[in-house]
Structures are given as structure tokens and as C-alpha cells.
Amino acid sequence: MVGMNPAVREVARLMLKIGVTGFGGPVAHIAMMRDETVRRRQWLSDDEFMQMVGATNLIPGPNSTEMAMHLGLKRAGARGLIVGGISFIFPAVVIVSFIAWLYAEYGSDPIVFDVRYGVLPVIVAVIAHAVWGLGRANLRKPASLITAAAAFGGYLIGLHELIVIMTLGLIWTIAHLARQGTNRTNSFTGLGLFAVLASQPTLTRLFLIFLEVGSVLYGSGYVLVAFLDNQLVRNNGYLTTEQLLDAVAIGQITPGPVFTTATFIGWQILGVAGAALATIGIFGPSFLFVGLLERFLRWLRARPVALAFLNGVTMSSLGLMAGVLVRIGDTALVDPFTWIVAVVALLLLITTKVGASWQVPAGVIIGIVQAAVT
Q1: Are 316 and 168 in contact (CB under 8 A)?
Q2: For 53-87, b where at least 16 C-beta lie within 10 A, e where not — what string?
Q3: Which pLDDT belongs to residue 189?
Q4: Is 283:213 a contact under the CB 8 Å cutoff?
Q5: What residue spans of 139-160 are helical by DSSP H?
Q6: Lower CB density within 10 Å: C or N end of the chain?
Q7: What confidence score (pLDDT) does residue 235 get?
Q8: Quick one: pLDDT at residue 218?
Q9: How many C-beta neighbours within 10 Å does residue 29 have?
Q10: Domain extents in the chain
């Protein structure tokens, strides 16, 4: 980090720390980022943070990685964007690459501890704390509360995240236009897919498949799994179903972006070069999208109609976070001890300065001990 200005160094250190300790998926990462950047460092307000979350949901790619980039941009400009993204991604790429090597060399059972038993209850507390704090800051009016509740319900019944946020954003836009007494309408266009079908894997084909994922994929890691199953297992036969499921498991039990599943898959198909190109392909478009997103946000904020749409997306994003909290809670809180861990972690967040990035390693230790004794 020699030669970096202080703001860029600060971004690098923070995103490396979250990249190392960030278990639990995108919503957990975003909750940790909120804890560090809003609550502890005061880089921005809760309102600004939620606008970032809402806007990030409008672009393809891994949301938490894009939030790391956006926060880096906010703190340290264009260099902060690049350093923030790379710093957040790098630890997971190193960890997943090591596991991918073990998997390729020594068999189908990766030699890793499943530390989720101790980590996930902590993550539940971190997300609950973020949802409560962001809710208090943003859900000040009945319309905001109703929007978040509708997104929460839509998530729980299985509606796609993009459908939820776009629908509610449009409802807010229509309501604003109705208040203004105008009949103007807005149109939205989607991105088209480019398919890469081939019988034998090559570095170029592998790169293009993951470039497509990074360029057009919205939604959670479960959407990623469906897409990769179609592209890599069914259409091309580059992986078996079992290999894909192992790759997904590695993405879930390691810290940092879930999209580093691409690193593991690339290694299994074409070794080190495949891992590198798959990683660049899936994460590369996000650097461009976030750079453009800042200009888009400035344009939105200057136009009341567009800002109404963004407000609807922001409130619905908060509802989606609450929905993820319920899902993770159902998975994580499996016995009285995990409930105790979650409650203690939440109380520490509320009453002390012990942040998520300190509590998650404690959860890792709990998970390792539990794995060792069972």
C-alpha cells in the first residue's frame, strides 16, 4: 500500500478486512459495510447508503462487490473504486484457488471446515442490526413502510428480486406522476443474452461465459447456480452436476463474494488460467457499471420523476434484506446455542463498539470447535 494516498489506503484496508471476514453472502457483506462505513467511520449517512444499495440493485453483477466499489468511489474517487473492488475480491480468490487446487489434486471432498454453525448466527445478528438501523432511517412514512413490506412478502413467496424492485420502483414513479398531474411514461430496456455454445472448453469460451454472467445476471447466488447449470452442465458438459454443487458449496462456506464460485469452476475446467479468466470475466463488468452508476445517480437525483423510482427501489431493497434475514435465520438458528450466539452478537452490536469484523472470526472459532467435536 506504499504510495497510496491515505483515503485509498483506508479503503484498501477496510475492504480487505471485510473480504477476509465476510461470511454469509451479499446481504451479510452489505450489513458489515454499513456497520463500518456509516456507523463507525461516518463516510456517509444511512440515507446515502441505502440509495447506493437501491441503485446497485438496478445493475447486473454481484451486489456486495459493487457496493465495495461504490463505497471506495465515494471515499477515494476512481482509484478507490478499483482498489475497493480488488481488495474485497482478492482474499476470496486466494482462498477459493487454494481449495480448488486441493480439490483437483486430491479428490472430490475439499479439505475445509464447515464453519457455518458458528458464523451464521453472527451473520443473522449483523443483518438484523443493519435492517433495524436502516429501517429507522428510511421507513419514516407509511408509503415507505408499505413498499418494504410488499418487497418482503414478494421475496418470501419466491418472486424474483429484479421483478420486485422494478415493479415497486415503477409504482413509486406512477404515484409521483399522478401527484404531478402528468401522463408522461418511462420505458426501461433489458440486456440481451449472448450464448456461448461449444463442445470443447477453451480459455476464450470460458471467459465469454463468465463475462456474460457478470454482464447480465441479476439476483442472488441461487440465480447464479441456475445459470451456470444451464451453461456449463446442460449445454456444454464442461462440468458434472456434482462438480457444480461442490463449487457452489465452496462459494457459500468461504468468506467474500459468492461469485468466486467462478474461480473454483475455472480451475476445474482449465486450471490456473481458467480460474484467472473466469474470475476476471465475472467481476470485470462491475467495475465499468459502478463507474457509470455514479453519473446515473447524479442524473437521477436531479430529476424528481427518476428520484421517485429510485426511492421505490431503495425501500424495496430494504424489504428484500429483511426477507434474506428470515431465510438465513431459518438456516442458522438450529438449536438453543445458536440462538444464544445470535442474541449475544446483536447485543454487542447495539451496546458496544465490537463490530461485525471482530465477531465473525469468533463465529469461525465456534464453527471449528463444533466441527472438531462432532
Answers
A1: yes
A2: bbbbbbbbbbbbbbbbbbbbbbbbeebbbbbbbbb
A3: 36
A4: no
A5: 142-156
A6: C
A7: 75
A8: 60
A9: 29
A10: 6-188+287-373
What does the pLDDT read at residue 332?
A: 81
Work out whether the CA dihedral 69, 169, 43, 91 comes out positive or negative: negative
Averaged in consecutive runs of 10 residues, what is the pLDDT profile of the chain (374 residues)? 81 94 80 91 90 80 91 94 96 91 69 63 80 79 88 82 79 82 43 49 90 73 64 81 73 80 92 95 93 77 75 78 79 87 89 73 81 76
Report in angstroms the alpha-carbon separations of 321 from 89, 148, 258, 328, 369: 22, 9, 17, 10, 30
What predicted TM-score, i.e. pTM, was given to this entire model? 0.68
Dist. CA 23–CA 126, nearest whole Å: 11
Give how far the C-alpha of residue 103 lies from the chain's centroid of Cα atoms, to the nearest Å. Answer: 25
Q: What is the rounded distance in angstroms from the CA atom of residue 365 to the CA atom of residue 368? A: 5
CB 8 within 8 A of CB 78: no
Give the per-residue pLDDT at 188.
36
pLDDT of amino acid 226: 60
Residue with cell 456497520: 35
d(CA 326, CA 127): 10
Q: In the numeric block, which cell numbers belong to residue 127?
A: 443483518
**DSSP-H helix ranges across 22-62:** 26-34, 46-56
**Residues near 257 by Cβ (< 8 Å), separated by ≥ 6?**
26, 29, 62, 64, 65, 88, 89, 92, 283
**Rounded CA gap, 216 and 193, in Å?**
7
What span, in angstroms and rounded, lies between the C-alpha atoms of 363 and 365? 5
Please list the alpha-helical segments (H only) found in 254-335: 261-301, 304-332
Residue 37 gets the label, from left (phi > 0), alpha (psi -120 to 50) or beta, of alpha
Give me the pLDDT at residue 9, please. Answer: 95
Backbone angles phi, psi at 257, to 5 degrees: -60, 135
Sign of CA dihedral 104, 108, 113, 117: positive
